[in-house]
Q: What sequence folds into this?
């Protein structure tokens, strides 16, 4: 299934404006390990439950949009046209050669 929206969330950084801690190697799948974990530099919370839920909601919304768009393609009449006859060809790249042969009519 072709996706309209594809999210790639990774990395974690401290929300404290005075702290510059960040780890770009953290994958989204590992976020639960950082839930409530203190920042190594300033000891503030690295990831709150609210922040994690917002990220999960973004994934859920993107998934719903992708599923909806997949269903919508069946309503598009051009979808069936392309299935039967193929996609339109770019006319700029077509070379048209016309040959005219004069046919003499017999009397």
A:
């Amino acid at each position: 299934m072709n996706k309209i929206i594809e999210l790639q969330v990774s990395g974690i950084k401290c929300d404290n404006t005075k702290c510059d801690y960040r780890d770009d190697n953290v994958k989204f799948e590992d976020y639960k390990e950082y839930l409530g974990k203190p920042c190594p530099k300033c000891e503030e919370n690295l990831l709150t439950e609210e922040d994690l839920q917002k990220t999960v909601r973004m994934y859920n919304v993107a998934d719903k949009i992708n599923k909806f768009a997949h269903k919508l393609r069946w309503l598009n009449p051009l979808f069936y046209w392309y299935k039967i006859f193929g996609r339109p060809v770019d006319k700029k790249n077509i070379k048209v050669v016309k040959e005219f042969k004069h046919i003499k009519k017999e009397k």
